Amino acid sequence: MTPGLEARAIPRPERIIPLAFLIGIAAGTLLLMMPVSRTGSGNADFVTALFTATSALCVTGLTVVDTPTYWSPFGHVVILGLFQAGGFGIMTGATLIGLLVSKHMRLRSQLMASAEMRSLDLGDVRHVVRLVLVASLATEAVLAVALFLRFWMGLGFSIPDAAWHGLFHAVSAFNNAGFTTLPDGLMPHRSDLWLLTPLVIGVIAGGIGFPVLHELRTEWRQPRSWSIHTKLTLWGSLGLLVVGTLGLLLFEWSNPKTLGPENPGGRILGAFFHSVMTRSGGFNTHDISALGPDSLLVSTALMLIGGGSASTAGGIRITTFLLLGFVVWSEIRGHPDSIAFRRRLAPDIQRQATAIVLLAVGAVSAGILALAAFVEAPVEKIMFEAVSAFGTVGLSTGLSASMPPAGQLILVALMYIGRVGTVSLAAAFALRLRSMPYRYPEERPIVG
To answer: Could you give the CA distance from residue 175 to residue 102 in angstroms, rounded to a whole number?
Structure first.
C-alpha cells in the first residue's frame, strides 16, 4: 500500500474519538440493562442505563438513581470499569495496545494520542502513555490501601467490604468520577480527615494531567526549568482552589444548612473539599441543593474551568482559561505579543483556546435553554446542572434525578460533548494546521 493510500485509510482522530466513546457508552448501557446489574427483579430502563453508562464513561458522576442500592455488585463493577476506561481514555488504551503489539507508532497515531492527552512534545507520547498506566495504577493502589485501612479499622467495615469500598473510591477519586458506593455517601463523614484526605489527593493528582505528572517526576528539583504548561497548570490549580475555598467560606459561613453548624475547622475543611470537587471530582460532603445562589455561581464558574489538560478532569481546562487571561492582560498593557512566564504565546494556540471557550459556552448555553423547557427550577440551579454535566463534574442540586427523561437525555448529550468535544477539536486543529501560500489584505474592523 502506498503512503498516500495508507494515510487515507486511517480515519481522522476527531472522528475516531467520538465514535470510540459512543461504542463504550453503548456497551455500558447494554450491560447495565441486564437484570444481573440491578438489585431486585427486572432490569434498568433504557434512559437510566444510558445516563449511568454515559456518566461513568465520561467520568462525570451524575446519577438519576441511588447508586449503592439500585445497582447490584455486578452493576457496580460495570460502573467502575466504565470510569476506569474513561479515565485512561479510550485513545490512550488503543495507543498502549499498539505499543505492546507493534512497538512502533506512526506519526498519525502519535498525533491521535497527543490530541487525547494534550501532550506538548510529540516525542514524549510514548513516555506519557506509559506514565498513564504506571501513575494511574500506582496511585490508585496507594489510595485503595489507605481507604481500606480507614474503612476497616476506623469505620468498622468488614475486611471484604472495606477492600471493595476502598478500591471503588480510590479509582473513582483518581479518575475524577465522583461515584460512591457508601449508603449515605460522604455526608456522614464530612469531618473525617482520614477518609477525605485520600480522596482529595486522588482527585488533585488525577486532575492536574499526565504531562504535568511526567514533568514533575523528571524535573521536580528544578522548578525554573518547568514548561509553561506545567507552570500554568500548577499555579492555576492552586489559585482556583484558594478562590473556591474563600468564596464558599464567605457565602456559606452562616448558612445553617451547609457550613453553619460546623466549627471553624470543619467549615474550612468543608469549603476546601467542595472547592477541590468542583474541579471535576464530584464528591460532596454537604447538601448541594442547600447552597446559596452566590455559592452556586462560584461553583459553576469553577466547574466550567475544570482541571488540567490531559487529566481525568473536564471543563475547558486551566491552561485554556489562563492563556486567554494572559492574552487579555497583554492587550490591556498594549503589548504586541501575548506573554506568559516570559514566553511568547503562539498565535495558533491563542486561536485554539478562543475557539474552544466560545464553543463550550455555546454548547452550555444551548443546554441551559433546552433544560429550561423541561425543568421548573431557578435558573442558577439549571445552569449548575448543565455545567456540571458539560464539565464532567457530577455535583448535583438534585435536578438530574427529578428531571423527565427528555431533560436527562439533554444532560447525556452535554456529558458526551463535554468529554469528547474539546478532545476532537484539539485533534482537528492539530491535524489541519497548515501554512497558506498567500495572505489576504489586512483590514481592521471596529471592535467594542
So the answer is: 28
pLDDT of residue 427: 56
> How far is 319 from 312, CA to CA, in rounded Å?
15
Q: Which residues on neighbouring strands pair with residue 340, listed in sequence order?
A: 343
C-alpha cell belonging to residue 142? 496507594
Q: By the 8 A CB rule, do 46 and 56 touch?
A: no
Is 237 within a domain? yes
Residue 438 lies in a domain: no
Q: Within a 13 Å sphere around the CA of 103, how many CA atoms are in the beta-carbon half?
A: 0
Query: Of all helices (H) and strands (E), which one includes residue 226?
Result: none
Overall size of the chain counted in residues: 448
Q: Nearest to residue 81, comparing CAs of 167, 10, 186, 198?
A: 167
Provide the strand spans (E) within 37-172. none
Is pLDDT of 11 > 70? no
> What is the spatial distance between Cα 178 and Cα 146, in angstroms, rounded to a whole number?
18
First to last CA, the chain: 54
Q: How far is CA 394 from the centre of its chain?
A: 9
**Inter-residue contact 173 to 203 (CB < 8 Å):** yes
Q: What are the C-alpha distances in Å from 94 to residues 89, 101, 206, 250, 431? A: 9, 11, 20, 46, 19
Helix (H) or strand (E) holding 47: helix 46-57
Cell numbers given for 75: 452493576
Number of domains the chain is built from: 1
Q: How far is CA 173 from CA 143, 202, 206, 407, in A?
A: 9, 5, 8, 27
Q: Containing domain of residue 86, as a range?
A: 6-432
- Does a structural domain hold residue 22? yes
Measured over the CA atoms of residue 191, residue 192, residue 196 and residue 198, the dihedral's sign is positive
Note the pLDDT tens digit of each residue in 297-351: 999 999 999 988 777 888 888 988 998 998 888 888 888 888 888 888 878 778 8
Q: How far is CA 175 from the centre of its chain?
A: 8
pTM of the model: 0.86
What's the burial of 366, exposed, middle or buried (CB within 10 Å: 0-12/13-18/19+)? Answer: middle
The owner of cell 489507605 is 146
Distance CA 268, CA 248 (A): 9
Q: Under a CB-based contact definition with an 8 Å cutoff, are residues 292 and 282 in contact?
A: no
Does residue 37 form part of some domain?
A: yes
CA pair distance 203, 189, nearest whole angstrom? 17
